[in-house]
Amino acid sequence: MALTVGLRPLTRALLRPWARVPGAALGRPAAGSGDGVRCFGSPRVLVEPDPAAGVAVMKMRNPPVNSLSLEFLTELLISLEKLENDKTFRGIIITSDCPGIFSAGLDLLEMYGRDPAHCAEYWKAVQELWLRVYLSNLVVIGAINGISPAGGCLLSLSCDYRVLANNPKYAIGLNETLLGIIAPFWFKDVLVNTIGHRAAERALQLGFLFPPSDALQVGIVDQVVPEDQVQSTARSVMAQWLAIPDHARQLTKNLVRKPTADRLLQQRDADIQNFVRFISRDSIQKSLHVYLEKLKQKKG
Amino acid sequence: MALTVGLRPLTRALLRPWARVPGAALGRPAAGSGDGVRCFGSPRVLVEPDPAAGVAVMKMRNPPVNSLSLEFLTELLISLEKLENDKTFRGIIITSDCPGIFSAGLDLLEMYGRDPAHCAEYWKAVQELWLRVYLSNLVVIGAINGISPAGGCLLSLSCDYRVLANNPKYAIGLNETLLGIIAPFWFKDVLVNTIGHRAAERALQLGFLFPPSDALQVGIVDQVVPEDQVQSTARSVMAQWLAIPDHARQLTKNLVRKPTADRLLQQRDADIQNFVRFISRDSIQKSLHVYLEKLKQKKG
Amino acid sequence: MALTVGLRPLTRALLRPWARVPGAALGRPAAGSGDGVRCFGSPRVLVEPDPAAGVAVMKMRNPPVNSLSLEFLTELLISLEKLENDKTFRGIIITSDCPGIFSAGLDLLEMYGRDPAHCAEYWKAVQELWLRVYLSNLVVIGAINGISPAGGCLLSLSCDYRVLANNPKYAIGLNETLLGIIAPFWFKDVLVNTIGHRAAERALQLGFLFPPSDALQVGIVDQVVPEDQVQSTARSVMAQWLAIPDHARQLTKNLVRKPTADRLLQQRDADIQNFVRFISRDSIQKSLHVYLEKLKQKKG
């Protein structure tokens, strides 16, 4: 079955068992490699392939806010892995199918009131998504069509290029401190790489969510365009990136990004343990409780 | 006595003996922690506490130019330590009580014609001030109301945010090369962190002192305001920083700044020895002599 | 003979034998150090000394495009070494004597169809040129009067200051990916140092050649001036740099640049082997073949 092709051990481990994504295999099974349109995707990740262009659009659909739950992360990883292993595709565009929100980031319900083993499994999946996107051999363009805080911002920052819709509500940033939590060092590293040390230092401490004009000025996104042109702009930018020979571009991307990824790779387990220890603290669980109650009241 | 509460060994070592700051305990002794207004301060460091806001203003008064002499450094360290150890305070504003000058930086008289032991003690205090300000758990805002060269610039760069008075005479920068001396690696690291590698490389070699408009453009300060609004702006900015939960902000600040501080912490003694060796050279002592003579003639 | 004065072992090794630069000693042999005008230079490197100012202009003349062939690199290294060892000179201006081109960069003919030993010798010379220019005790100003791709850009980036002629044809950048090859890590490091991580990441992958206005904006050059003012501007800038005491400026330059140079110095041989292995691949030789054929057709 197409879904299982090329899955690496880690992704398999994250699924454990497959049944966790029961409806994941919505698409037609592929008859083989290179035979035209393939239907990828899963309940939460719509993949619209354009084999002629070598491009696939990955639409995140985990309503209401594309929270990066363990299941959703797992589906994203599977989709990414399939696209990476399919020679048809040279680039992907990541965008949202949920109106007004790109992704709200990590799912607090995966860390609130959960046992350490679950938190560890979850954090491993978060790490994996970052490493997969940040080091992807594919060109990855973010078509950011909604607000993009915290983990949603990290996902954006891990793309090769970011196009943000010019809607003042669509702020982007690592706003962890506002929730009383801390961005991990690799979130910080990626932000420093993108907007520089000083801007990152200030933005991280103050939990800045940059509206489009500020986002462009500080460099946390590369381009701001009218909302109805986000997808078409992402496609044009993609064409520019695909004009470069894959091999040279991939090696160059690796040259630039590997040292940052290596900092996590060299201490993945310690980073997981740190996360579990931190999130298990009473004070942090309490902060999460307060925040989740506020969210409930907002909805109610 | 309030002054001795919570002093860490290093600061004690720097004082050795206490008598060095004979008039340091000007304030009323505090009756205990959290019991309202405390009077800190020393002859050279005026502390104006605003307990309601959780903010203290530290005014440097070491006329004529707030040279960072060993005594003055020691008083600054004591005041910082006291404020850090007093739960009343969450932020401090560092500013000058000397008209037209924030701080002229290191006191050349502490390195000219002095024996190695004195130079070593002095350098340790310089390191300590930087580490204390740069890693402070308090929010530290610089209200830069005067020229701020060399060590004065370092002090500014170590704050969390810099507000500079818009007076063309109030230049700021690491201008050590103009004196024939070299900024230590950690001065360089902090400048690179703040304005980027290329701008720092050029500014350090040419000993740039940036007037306000250039300072803002290159990013060595965060904001330039009319001279009579420096203090009020610093207070508004402080409110913005204090809106963030302390714990999350402090851990995030540490996440961003610790690696830079660690570079010095891992080689503090070697750095002291380097300084002593460098400053003891005949050629450097001669440069200092020439410069100090020039200063005398200016005054004369 | 003037030419042999002060040559370090490596440069000698690169020459092996001297006969490689048969006409190198065009100038009058110097009668001694400090005795007025000296005539340096070689067939491909014109040196115009201005002893009164302490400045020499080095004009690259390896027509048609100042390709950095092994012979040309060797002559550049000899000229640099002579100027560095002559107390008369405190600064050099590097510029081109070939109309419209600063330098086309590395000479592909030194890596296409060559045996590994030759490729290794060539790469060692490329490394040496970079280290020599990047860490030079002299002030090095680039008067970039023509297009400056790939290795030509690296040479520019290794200067202390870059003045680019305002001609839309005179683009500058590390465009290796366009040729299907990869910039080495130290090219990348120097670009990151100059324009920041994010801009470098994008420029390197897309092989950007920045026209003057973009070059100035991204910071890959420091100044853009009308074409007929490039040399005079370089001279004015030089005066500014020479106003700084040499000793302090040199130590500060070293402080800022040594860590970057050390990354190569710590693995020079491995870097040579990497290059030889990479360039010897069939796929890369094929890419070079295609590119060289295109160049031939253009000329034909």
- What percentage of residues of chain A falls in helices of 4 or more residues? 40-55%
**Number of helical segments with 4 or more residues of chain A:** 11
Which structural class do you get from the secondary structure elements of chain A?
Answer: alpha/beta
The oligomeric state is: homotrimer
SSE string of chain A: HEEEHEEEHEEHEEHHHEHHHH
Q: What topology does this entry show?
A:
The structure is a homotrimer of 300-residue chains.
Chain A: H1 9-15, E1 45-50, E2 55-60, E3 67-68, H2 70-84, E4 91-96, E5 100-101, E6 105-106, H3 116-134, E7 139-144, E8 146-149, H4 150-157, E9 161-165, E10 172-173, H5 185-195, H6 197-206, H7 212-218, E11 223-225, H8 230-242, H9 246-265, H10 268-280, H11 282-299
Parallel strand pairs in A: 2-4, 3-6, 4-7, 5-8, 7-9, 8-10, 9-11
Antiparallel strand pairs in A: 1-2
Helix pairs in contact in A: 2-3, 3-10, 5-6, 5-9
Characterization of this structure:
3 copies of one chain form a homotrimer. Chain A has helices at residues 9-15, 70-84, 116-134, 150-157, 185-195, 197-206, 212-218, 230-242, 246-265, 268-280, 282-299, and strands at residues 45-50, 55-60, 67-68, 91-96, 100-101, 105-106, 139-144, 146-149, 161-165, 172-173, 223-225. Chain A is α/β, with parallel strands linked by helices. In chain A, the strands form 3 sheets. Chain A has a 6-stranded mixed beta sheet, with helices on both faces. In chain A, a hairpin with a 4-residue loop joins strand 1 (45-50) and strand 2. The radius of gyration of chain A is 18 Å and the shape is globular. The interface between A and B is medium-sized, with 23 and 22 residues. Chains A, B, C: One of its GO terms (cellular component) is mitochondrial matrix. Chains A, B, C: Keywords: Acetylation, Fatty acid metabolism, Isomerase, Lipid metabolism, Mitochondrion, Transit peptide.
